[in-house]
Amino acid sequence: MIRKALTIAGSDSGGGAGIEADLKTYSAFGVHGLVAITSVTAQNTQEVRAIHDVDPEVVAKQIEAVADDIGVDAAKTGMLSNAEIIKAVAKTVKKYSFPLVVDPVMIAKSGAPLLREDAMDALIEKIIPLAKVVTPNKPEAEKLSGIRIENLEDARKAAKIIVEELGAESAIVKGGHLGLSEAVDVFYFNGEFKEYRAPFVDGCTHGTGCSFSAAIAANLAKGKELEEAVRIAKEFITMGIYYGAKIGYGHCPVNQNAWIEIPAEKWRVYESLRNAIKELVAIENLPQYVPEVGMNFVYALPRLYARSKDDVAGVKGRIVKFGSAVKPVGGVEFGASDHLARAILTYMNFFPETRSVLNLKYSEELIKKASNLGLRVSFYDRREEPEEIKAQEGGTIPWGIRTAIERINGKPDIIYHLGNWGKEAMILIFGETPQVVLRKLKMLIE
Ligand SMILES: Cc1ncc(COP(=O)(O)OP(=O)(O)O)c(N)n1
Ligand SMILES: Cc1nc(C(=O)O)sc1CCOP(=O)(O)O
Question: Could you tell me which Pfam families the record lists for this protein (predicted)?
Fold first, then answer.
């Protein structure tokens, strides 16, 4: 049965925060999202240009309409904007028994106020006591608790005040603004403190508060215990910040899709490469083209998710000559390639759609044939590698690929190098997918 989660929040026309972030988060967790829009903002990654509040009665009607028919397993509040909307929301949600996550939205990351000054008392009196959990960041927790927060001890005090004095069931004070090397969130629940830690990632932060609270609501809707819902939400938001796409000129938005897209893409890449390798090893005359160091065949995740060699699938132990045949030594794994992973990651900086590459033993004859077939060929010469690149661990291949691409000022199908002392000469064949690489290989050697 599909679970339903409601968001009572404002709309962000930039799609980074508010209702839009909440719905994307609900989708990422496989929960059906319901909405009660409180306010329409004309907003982008840099500024809020206009705010138009919805009639409080219409906000209440939206909540009732979905709760009475579809049902709500959990809900969250975001931007509530003014005291009348706050009162209408409080009065309406009290009629139902769903758990409520309260993100006490006050100011947008761009600095614009999203809660009127005179609505703070209403938020504290009417909404906070209804919360299963309140999720303030540092400035919001300071406003709610009335204390300054400089460190984790202050965050603990603020969380305790929000629960014991303001009446929420629990509170999680987020540590993203505390300037620590880790993002530490302090959670106070059932008279006990707990900390949720994640490495502080430099990434896209617009909509973090919205997406984090929506992730908690989605997981509560799915029947998770509160502490588990918070743990999952922390993992989700860390991933969303790290894999955010740099859109707009201001604070770029969290990528909620990373949560589902990365596992799905990993599976597609794995399957596609495994099938291509079966086809590769069945090519009859392949053994003569396998280099002494062995061959590898790799496929990277889409550009947004391809950051390191762990995001590139390849053959563990490479593909080697075995009697008169060719065999993969191990299975397809992410992180299994070093040289080709560095080659494809560099190539993708220029041509993000080209995500696969394979290496072959060098022969002058193959290079001539490639050119005759109309494949674009370029090369690099390891003897020309600058000293400062040589000094960098793993710098040669990225330098070589860059040099080869810049040499022809275009997109090479093939890049070769003639080797150097202790380094075998090599041909690399590039393509959008392993199937495209295989097609080029077959043109060349069959
Ligand atoms: C409509 C709307 N709601 C909420 C916000 C706040 O989002 P943001 O500025 O990204 O701050 P955090 O939610 O990340 O703390 C908004 N900008 N617009
Ligand atoms: C050892 C080696 N050197 C290459 C080059 O292009 O110079 S390709 C290659 C084989 C593949 O290595 P991996 O499994 O680390 O990707």
Answer: Phos_pyr_kin (PF08543), ThiN (PF10120)
396 lines ligand 2 (CB under 6 A): no
Atom of ligand 2 nearest to the CA of 340: 16
Question: 426 alpha carbon to ligand 2 midpoint, in Å?
Answer: 8
With a 6 Å cutoff on the Cβ, whether 296 touches ligand 2 is yes
Distance CA 281, CA 358 (A): 13
Minimum mean pLDDT range among 4-13, 36-45, 264-273, 413-422: 413-422
Q: How far is the CA of 397 from the centre of ligand 2 (A)?
A: 9
Identify which ligand lies nearest to the alpha carbon of 206.
1
Mean pLDDT, residues 51-73: 98
- What digits encode the pLDDT tens for the residues 109-145? 888 899 999 999 999 999 999 999 999 999 999 999 9
Centroid of ligand 1 to alpha carbon of 12 (angstroms): 8
Let me know whether 181 and 76 are in one domain.
yes
Q: Are residues 360 and 309 located together in one domain of the fold?
A: yes
**What ipTM was predicted for this assembly?**
0.93
Pair 316, 180 in one domain: no
**Cβ–ligand 2 contact at 337 (below 6 Å):** yes
Final residue of a structural domain among 229, 255, 281:
255
pTM equals 0.93
Pocket test for ligand 2, best of 289, 290, 295, 296 (most atoms within 8 A of CB): 296
209 is catalytic: yes
Can you give the residue range of the structural domain that contains 389? 261-445
Give residue-wise pLDDT tens across range 145-184.
999 999 999 999 999 999 999 999 999 999 877 777 788 9
- Quote the pLDDT of residue 61: 98
- The question of whether 396 is a catalytic residue gets the answer no
Residue 435's pLDDT is 98
Look up the CATH number of the domain holding residue 353: 3.40.225.10
- The pLDDT tens digits of the residues spanning 246-288 come to 999 999 999 999 999 999 999 999 999 999 999 999 999 999 9
